[in-house]
Specification:
The complex is a heterodimer of chains A (121) and B (193). Chain A is α+β, with helices and mostly antiparallel strands and 121 residues long. Chain A has one domain. In chain A, the strands form 2 sheets. In chain A, strands 1-3-2 form a 3-stranded antiparallel β-sheet, with no helix packed on it. In chain A, strands 4-5 form a two-stranded antiparallel sheet. Chain B has 193 residues and is mainly alpha-helical. Helix content of chain B is 50%, strand content 8%. The longest helix of chain B has 44 residues. Chain B starts with 38 loop residues before the first helix and ends with a strand. The chains are: A alpha+beta (121), B mainly alpha (193). At the A-B interface, helix 1 and strand 1 of A face helix 2, helix 3 and helix 4 of B. Chain B: Keywords: Membrane, Signal, Transmembrane, Transmembrane helix.
């Protein structure tokens, strides 16, 4: 009976640890609008302009902040193609719903790109 | 506690009036030891005819047997309580494992993302429910494990103590030693419990 007892303990311990680790990875990078959309060790990184335009944020590890160069209103680097606001941080299927961005060289933040012809959105 | 020696005098005239038994013609009884103060009374001292039976040491039971019984009952209750707590902890642990591997919140979350075009819906009740289950599962499982181990240890320790207490409480075989002396008889028995 002691052997089954120890087997049960090991099974439950592994199940508990495995369950906790998997979910954090599963939710990272997913869109969110409230904190409950993310894991308890994550935060919903949603910038002010995203709230203004009713756009979702991204589940990120706590105290990480927005995704550099890939979220509206987040800091950017106009020189680096990976962080010059051309590729949103949201999952690919939501790119169509996200406004086109440019990295404003004056304030070094991702801003909504002017529409073709120069009209503001 | 030993019972006080119970003396039963059967048809005994007073010792004062009893006549000493006649001395055998060829008295081969050994000479009285030198420390006998009254040799005449020593001749009337009872001589046990029967062999003392039983294994009682005659020293009596140390301590109050009622206190020992209380300790035994308490140890029994603690053993049962520990077992019940271990069962409760095991149930909790298994419930936690079922939440994780039975409900499978991660798989259902992936299905939810597929149904939503590849990403999870935001501020969704099903998403929040699956996250809550995934968060509660390990907590329930580990809490159950802790309770299971604590209960099992308690039951094991209490059971050991119960066994030792029961071994201490042993009923000795009644020792009976009837004795004939003079014109009377005496029966002495002792029980240890």
């Amino acid at each position: 009976m002691s052997r089954h007892f120890y087997d049960l303990i090991k099974l439950v311990a592994v199940a508990g640890l495995a369950g906790a680790c998997d979910f954090e990875e599963a939710l990272e990078g997913e869109p969110c609008t409230v904190e409950d959309d993310c894991w308890h060790t994550q935060e919903c990184a949603r910038t002010g302009p995203e709230r203004f335009y009713n756009l979702p944020g991204i589940c990120q590890p706590e105290d990480t902040g927005c995704v550099f160069g890939r979220q509206l209103g987040c800091a950017c680097n106009p020189v680096d193609p990976a962080t010059n606001c051309t590729v949103p941080a949201l999952p690919y299927n939501l790119h169509a719903t996200y406004p086109r961005m440019v990295c404003d060289a004056a304030i070094l933040q991702c801003a909504v790109a002017p529409p073709e012809g120069g009209d503001q959105p | 506690m030993s019972l006080a020696a119970l003396t039963v005098l059967l048809a005994s005239p007073s010792l004062a009036g009893a006549q000493p038994p006649p001395v055998a013609e060829f008295d081969e009884s050994p000479a009285p030891p030198s420390d006998v103060l009254h040799p005449d009374l020593a001749a009337d001292a009872p001589q046990a005819d029967w062999i003392r039976e039983g294994y009682g040491a005659g020293a009596g039971v140390e301590g109050d047997p009622r206190a020992l019984n209380r300790q035994i009952r308490r140890a029994g209750r603690v053993t049962l309580a520990g077992g019940a707590i271990a069962i409760l902890g095991g149930t909790l642990a298994i419930t936690g494992a079922i939440l994780l591997y039975g409900v499978r919140p991660k798989t259902r979350l992936q299905d939810l993302a597929k149904d939503n075009g590849g990403s999870l819906p935001t501020d969704d009740e099903e998403r929040h429910r699956l996250i809550s289950i995934a968060r509660a599962g390990p907590v329930v499982a580990f809490t159950g494990l802790g309770v299971l181990v604590g209960g099992a240890v308690t039951a094991a320790v209490a059971r050991l103590r119960l066994k030792k207490l029961r071994e201490r409480r042993r009923t000795s075989i009644v020792s009976v030693s009837p004795t004939m002396f003079g014109h009377g008889a005496e029966v002495h028995w002792e029980v240890r419990f």
